[in-house]
Amino acid sequence: MFSKTKILSLLTLLLLFSPQLSLQTQPTICIIGAGMAGSSLAHFLRRYSPPTTPHPPHIHIFERNGVVGGRMGTVTISNHTFEAGASILHPKNYHAVNFTKLLNLKIKQPSSSDESDSFGIWDGEQFVFKTLSVDSKVPFVQKIVSFANSVYIFMRYGWSLLKMQSFVDSAVGRFLKYYESLERRPVFESVDEMLKWAGLYNLTTRSLREEVADVGLTRLLTQELVTVITRINYGQSIDISGLAGAVSLAGSGGGLWAVEGGNWQMAAGLINRSDVALHLHEEIESISYLGGYYELNSTKGNSYTCEVTAVATPLDELNLLFSPPILIPERKLQHTHATFVRGVLNPVYFGLDDVSKIPDLVGTIEDPDLPFTSISVLKRHGEKDFSYKIFSRKPMADLLLDDIFSARRETIRIDWGAYPHYTAPEAFAPFILDGQHLYYVNAFENAASTMETSAVAAENIARLIVSRFFGSESLSSSNLKSFSFDGEELHVDL
Ligand SMILES: Cc1cc2nc3c(=O)[nH]c(=O)nc-3n(C[C@H](O)[C@H](O)[C@H](O)COP(=O)(O)OP(=O)(O)OC[C@H]3O[C@@H](n4cnc5c(N)ncnc54)[C@H](O)[C@@H]3O)c2cc1C
Question: Which domain of life is it from (predicted)?
Fold first, then answer.
């Protein structure tokens, strides 16, 4: 027979270990990763947590690096700071637009000189296409050059360009459904469901090569412009999925922008205003489900108890131990080697007699013998003194760089586990890894990898946590601030 005191202590134990009952006290939500996904998740959790909850959750964010931002990192060459990873945002990246306004960050508009930035397609022996460039700071001259280049591009690729644009517009239009109001937009339990609802799923089942052939793009446009853009934005060929391809093409249009001083400030700002305990230099090495809560262990030897855990980083190259083990489809990351050089390119390497004839952005066609995917001028310090960014699939050896450059004052190399290696049809990992409260934001990265898609996925995971952990009523509460892309909460104009 149980005594009264024994029954009471059993009840206390039950209260401690049942997540729903533990709502009597403050639940703890642990987020692994302080990039765009982790920081947006904290932001949306605070925004969507039921206002009626007497005990708002504790939020912990763990970051193995000493800085936040993840792949929104910067690099400093000779005292000048440049984006080393994610650099450009689309004008319709509405979460990023909104974060920037909310955090009072300054937007870096594409400078007027960009209009005269020259562009060329290198095939290893010659520039198969090169826009005109005139070294003039006079806006009128720049406008004329820009117009002449549009005509020139049109003459080479013809009406196919419009077909490409409408392919991109259609994908972007569908993506905009993710900004519809909460009333109209379900909470998605899987990536497949989320993509099907927006009409984007089919684009992940076929390659970009198949998609653009279906919309009638010419071989020339596909093998040159489309390939060049895909190589620059995802380091991969047109065999990536149609959706990743459309996102990549959208990232080459007009109105692109960035945050002045670095895109990482979005993550920093969101974390700062979300009442979060941030643990820098703390890598999580194991997550164990112990019935009603998770125990997280870090490389610092610390142990944390969390009712909810969200992984906000790709799991593919991590040594993160799960107990019990989780099952996700195998996914390889595409490594992009970003090499930053202060110096000057060697015109002879490009068969030219003067460095001024090398385009500001050199893209490349798909050829396994080409040692780089792109070279772009980041800053012109003087007539023969530039800062460059080179993207390549393999590391750029010194000997090779000595061939490509006639002078090199400084070289910095970064090896990014950059984005998924896309293959169609894509197989998606679950958002809910264990059927309990272990979530995976970056399951969505197989659809497309961008700062904005991380925020879109994080917003859905925040809603998923709020509805599954706090109870579904919370989300439909009229107290909840509505999120709509025409609502006042979201600023769409840049
Ligand atoms: C070279 C390059 C160029 C790109 N260009 C663009 C672009 O122009 N525009 C664009 O929108 N996107 C671009 N992207 C993609 C974009 O950077 C990513 O899609 C986005 O930043 C991903 O954010 P995230 O928070 O999901 O992941 P991440 O930024 O990778 O953040 C994950 C964080 O988790 C941390 N972490 C990992 N494991 C642990 C652990 N066990 N414990 C604690 N912390 C851990 C990591 O250190 C990291 O900070 C580019 C990416 C690269 C690499």
Answer: Eukaryota
Share of the chain above pLDDT 70, in %: 88
Residue-range definition of the domain harbouring residue 463: 17-69+263-331+425-476
Residue 434 has pLDDT above 60, yes or no: yes
pLDDT in tens, 439-455: 999 999 999 999 999 99
Question: How far apart are the CA of 70 and the centre of ligand 1, in A?
Answer: 5
* Cβ atoms of 50 and 57 closer than 8 Å: no
pLDDT for res 471: 82
Query: Residue 252 domain-assigned?
Result: yes
Q: Do 441 and 413 share a structural domain?
A: no
- Flag whether 192 is in a domain: no
Mutate to test the pocket of ligand 1, among 108, 313, 361, 392 (most ligand atoms within 8 A of CB): 313
What's the CATH code of the domain at 318?
3.50.50.60
Closest atom of ligand 1 to 65 CA is 47
Token reading at 362: 């050199």
146 lies in the same domain as 273: no
| Ligand 1 centre distance from Cα of residue 426 (Å) | 20
Tell me how far the alpha carbon of residue 434 is from its chain's centroid.
25
Same domain membership, residue 26 and residue 155: no
The pLDDT tens digits for 256-289 are: 999 999 999 999 999 999 999 999 999 999 999 9
Residue list, ligand 1 pocket, CB within 6 Å? 32-38, 62-65, 70-72, 85-88, 283-284, 312-313, 318, 320, 336, 338, 416, 418-419, 442, 449-452, 454
Residue of 75, 414, 451, 459 with the most ligand 1 atoms within 8 Å of its CB, for mutation: 451
Distance CA 370, CA 372 (A): 6
Distance 185 CA to ligand 1 centre (A): 26
Q: How far is the CA of 23 from the centre of ligand 1 (A)?
A: 32
Q: Looking at residues 325-351, what average pLDDT do you find?
A: 97
Q: Mapping DSSP to helix (H, G, I), strand (E, B) and coil, where does residue 391 land?
A: strand
For strands 321-323 and 258-259, give the pairing: unpaired
Q: Is the pTM of this model over 0.85?
A: yes
Quote the longest CA-to-CA distance of the chain: 97
Mean pLDDT of 177-183: 97
Cα 32 to ligand 1 centroid, rounded to whole Å: 12
* Residue 489 in domain: no
Q: State the closest ligand 1 atom to the C-alpha of 62, by its place in the atom list counted from 1.
A: 43
Domain count, the chain: 2
CA dihedral (356, 357, 361, 362) in degrees, to 10, reads: -140
The mean pLDDT of the chain is: 89
